[in-house]
Amino acid sequence: MASGMHQGPDLGRFEESAHALASAARPVCAYVYDLAHLRRQAEYARRSLPPGSRLLYAVKANAEAAVLQALVPVVDGFEVASGGEIERVRKASADAPIAFGGPGKTEAELARALEQGVEVVHVESVNELARLEEAGRRQRRRVEVLLRVNLSEGLPGATLTMGGPTQFGIEEAQLPAAVDLARQCRWASLRGFHFHLLSNQLDPLAHAGLVARYLDHSLAWASEHGIPLSMINAGGGFGVDYAHPGRQFDVALFAGRLEAELANRPGARGVTLVFECGRFLAASAGAYVVEVIDLKVNHGRHFAIVRGGTHHFRLPASWGHSHPFRVVALDERRPGSSRPEFHDCLLTVAGQLCSPKDVLARDVAVERVRVGDVLVFDHAGAYGWSISHHDFLSHPHPDVVLLDDPE
Ligand SMILES: Cc1ncc(COP(=O)(O)O)c(C=O)c1O
Fold first, then answer.
1. I need a labelling partner for 183 at 20 to 30 A (CA). Which of 4, 82, 136, 365 fits?
2. How far apart are CA 387 and CA 398, in angstroms?
3. What are the pLDDT digits (tens) for 92-131?
4. In sequence order, which residues have a C-beta less than 8 Å from that of residue 34 and are 6 or more positions away?
């Protein structure tokens, strides 16, 4: 285990849930969330970060009500990307701090954000800043602003990058226009800059180097444009190594390097550093648990067809990866009915949709699997349900099972 690693979830709890779900007559199909692990993971990340920094939860990763409620006491607030996410956070907490980001915010969303007491808006364009100022003027409410900047050069490797010729943020050449407008604003007050340039970074030292560049850019722009810099949001991006669950992003190593970088930059003293993480907090707290409905061989390939698929769990299809799973042998399932089985095969796991893309894992070595057994896809708590096209083919939605420590 890497230094500073936090203990992973108790995987046995997900298996126990599979057995419990099998007592129902319908095929097993569920998301199981371990709320106790979720809280521990967030606590670990928060206490590992450099002193004085803030940790927000990026709601887009998993907006389940119980997940938000569990996180209210352990994070410093929530990052949202729509009016709908603002409402969800407000249901979980009347006063948790909210940062509102994402492109294409409508006038109605901006107005609602102000009514709901959003603390800071991550402004994505010069036009959006003008609209936010107008919303503030109408309501006579002040709101803090970070300009989301789109840097393109020299991004380290990661699964997704948002910098460069993408729709996100404001390119450096347009910053002077944004700062000029901010200077004229009375209700929207500029506090600093926001960066979210990549997702799923697995290298903590490379990530610390990137955040150090955010600091350098922000300090330089603040001095060039005379901005009283008080906040830098360094986005999310702490990665999850799906293929090697024991090798996770080492937040302590990241924070140690970042503290050294901060110490070398006296100008950053007094500036609040904010992180808004989704994947790293929520992924390991969830499992997608599905029953094998059918087994077949087509053109030499062994298939398990499960109850569910990418309409519930689109992450593997979206990233083109084969999501690791465990076979849980359910002896109690389907008593009296025949249970076809495969031994020692390379198994491809497909769902119930009419699309060849409805595949969760490909050619995975499996010792034994039977119809009626259950497959547990770990690390499904982030960008699983939340990014999926739930109603394609009108199959039922999965059950949601919440695990927690006894009070
Ligand atoms: C603006 C912004 N912030 C934070 C996040 C969360 O990123 P992650 O889940 O990689 O931590 C995202 C994810 O897309 C994002 O777009």
1. 82
2. 14
3. 999 999 999 999 999 999 999 999 999 999 999 999 999 9
4. 9, 10, 13, 14, 285, 286, 403, 404
How many C-alpha atoms does 171 have within 13 Å on its Cβ side? 7
Widest CA span in the chain: 77
Kindly report the backbone phi and psi dihedral angles of residue 332, in degrees, each rounded to the nearest multiple of 5, phi listed first: -80, -5
pLDDT tens digits, one per residue of 218-261? 999 999 999 999 999 999 999 999 998 878 899 999 999 999 99
pLDDT of residue 187: 98
188 with 140: CB under 8 angstroms?
no
Token code pair at residue 147? 């300009």
Among candidates 59, 96, 57, which has minimal Cα distance to 275?
57
Residues with CB under 6 A from ligand 1: 58, 60-61, 79, 101, 196, 199-200, 235-238, 276-280
49, 56, 60, 203: which to mutate for ligand 1, most atoms within 8 A of CB? 60
Which residue shows structure tokens 């007559």?
25
Which amino acid, residue 71? L
Enter the tokens of residue 210: 């990137």
For CA atoms 50, 52, 57, 58, the dihedral sign is negative
User: Helices (H) and strands (E) in the chain — how many of each?
Assistant: 11, 19
Q: Which atom of ligand 1 is nearest to the CA of 81?
A: 1
Domains of the chain: 97-277 (3.20.20.10), 284-403 (2.40.37.10)
Per-position DSSP letters for 15-40, written without gaps between them: HHHHHHHTTSSSPPEEEEEEHHHHHH
Whole-number Å distance between alpha carbons of 79 and 85: 9
Select from 285, 274, 315, 286 the least CA-distant residue to 57. 274
Closest C-alpha residue for ligand 1 atom 1? 196
Return the H-helix or E-strand segment holding 110: helix 107-115
Residue that is written with structure tokens 């006038």 in the block: 107
Q: Point out the residues that are catalytic.
A: 354
Backbone angles phi, psi at 217, to 5 degrees: -60, -45
Distance in angstroms (rounded) separating the CA atoms of residues 291 and 308 = 8
Other Cβ atoms within 10 Å of 24 Cβ, number: 10
Count of residues for the chain? 407
Q: State the closest ligand 1 atom to the C-alpha of 148, by its place in the atom list counted from 1.
A: 1
Residue ranges of E strands in 351-398: 359-370, 374-377
